[in-house]
């Protein structure tokens, strides 16, 4: 029988997870996905992909093996109060995507005895290109199931839970950070002669290529950069101008501020 997955909180991330699970044949034949939100009509379109859409959290949880909690951190208390009567530690593996919400925070609401996993995926799950960090727990059998699910949505890395906030910033917020780079590069491309669409295509595919060079080889970025910077050429001139204006520093500082913000989310 298929593994029953309930995604509670069908917002930006919840729908990305559902879409990714429906998208690959392997995952869609293994997982039976139900997704909930109060305004369920906004995500009815997911039914076309074979996903069950409902407002009924308790019905979704009653059927589920894996329960993914994907509401905003301030919404978790109401959600758990709703599903608590049907939560069963013998049946359910709880998986939280919530930034800044600890296992202890969740246990306080659910009561003890549940395998609870903190995971940090990103919105690229929608196209099975997510990076998902999974927090280690002592629940090894359940951990395999959690990793298997997120492997079907992209790459996974098992980490100590004290790195969850760092994973949030680097991996989950990281999607926005890289997209802003692509937008800026596109704008630069327009200034030097391309139409917006052409500039975006060139910037996006180039970003993908740069990332793939590293993922393929495990090389340090600077190793690949050295291959592009022809002596006295235009690449090194551009790179150094970007650095004079604080490119690396801006990224590092942004990541640190983002990290400090997580503590204040709840
Ligand atoms: N967006 C991202 O890239 C990432 C987000 N996260 C984390 O995932 C969580 C979700 O983020 P995101 O998707 O951006 O947030 P959204 O606000 O887009 O999604 C939350 C969804 O939860 C629904 N919801 C709220 N209360 C309930 C309830 N009681 N029952 C059912 N559904 C409910 C809301 O819909 P409605 O009002 O209709 O009920 C809303 O669609 C957050 O905790 C965030 O920290 C983690 C990694 C990446
Ligand atoms: O911005 C946020 O708080 C959430 C967590 C990671 C991505 N989005």
Q: What's this entry about, in short?
A:
InterPro entries: 6-PGluconate_DH-like_C_sf (IPR008927), NAD(P)-bd_dom_sf (IPR036291), P5C_Rdtase_cat_N (IPR028939), P5CR_dimer (IPR029036), Pyrroline-COOH_reductase (IPR000304). By secondary structure, this protein is an alpha/beta fold.
Helix/strand class: alpha/beta
Assign an overall shape. Answer: elongated
Gross CATH architecture of the largest domain? 3-Layer(aba) Sandwich
Q: Report the total helices.
A: 12
Ligands bound to this protein structure: NADPH dihydro-nicotinamide-adenine-dinucleotide phosphate, (2S)-3,4-dihydro-2H-pyrrole-2-carboxylic acid
Question: What is the arithmetic mean of pLDDT?
Answer: 97
Spatial order of the strands forming the largest sheet: 3-2-1-4-5-6-7-8
Work out the count of structural domains: 2
Q: Fraction of residues in helices?
A: 40-55%
And the CATH topology of the largest domain?
Answer: Rossmann fold
CATH homologous group name of the largest domain: NAD(P)-binding Rossmann-like Domain
* Residues in β-strands, percent: 15-25%
Low-confidence stretches: none
Radius of gyration: 21 Å
Q: Can you summarize the main beta sheet?
A: 8 strands, mixed
Roughly how many Å apart are the termini?
Answer: 38 Å
């Amino acid at each position: 029988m298929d593994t029953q997955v309930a995604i509670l909180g069908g917002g930006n991330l919840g729908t990305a997870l559902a879409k990714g699970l429906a998208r690959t044949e392997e995952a869609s034949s293994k997982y039976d996905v139900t997704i909930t939100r109060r305004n369920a009509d906004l995500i009815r379109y997911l039914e076309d992909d074979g996903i069950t859409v409902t407002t009924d959290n308790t019905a979704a949880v009653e059927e589920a093996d894996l329960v993914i909690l994907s509401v905003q951190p301030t919404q978790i208390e109401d959600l758990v109060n709703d599903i608590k009567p049907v939560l069963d530690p013998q049946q359910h593996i709880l998986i939280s995507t919530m930034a800044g919400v600890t296992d202890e925070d969740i246990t306080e609401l659910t009561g003890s005895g549940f395998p609870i996993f903190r995971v940090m995926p990103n919105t690229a799950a929608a196209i099975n290109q997510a990076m998902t960090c999974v927090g280690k727990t002592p629940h090894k059998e359940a951990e395999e199931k959690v990793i298997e699910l997120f492997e079907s949505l992209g790459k996974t890395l098992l980490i100590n839970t004290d790195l969850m906030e760092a994973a949030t910033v680097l991996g989950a917020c990281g999607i926005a950070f890289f997209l802003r780079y692509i937008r800026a590069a596109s704008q630069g491309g327009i200034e030097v002669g391309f139409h917006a669409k052409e500039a975006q295509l060139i910037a996006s595919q180039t970003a993908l290529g740069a990332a793939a060079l590293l993922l393929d080889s495990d090389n340090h970025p600077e190793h690949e950069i050295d291959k592009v910077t022809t002596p006295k050429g235009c690449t090194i001139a551009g790179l150094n101008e970007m650095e004079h204006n604080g490119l690396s520093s801006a990224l590092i500082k942004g990541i640190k501020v983002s990290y400090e913000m997580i503590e204040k989310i709840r």
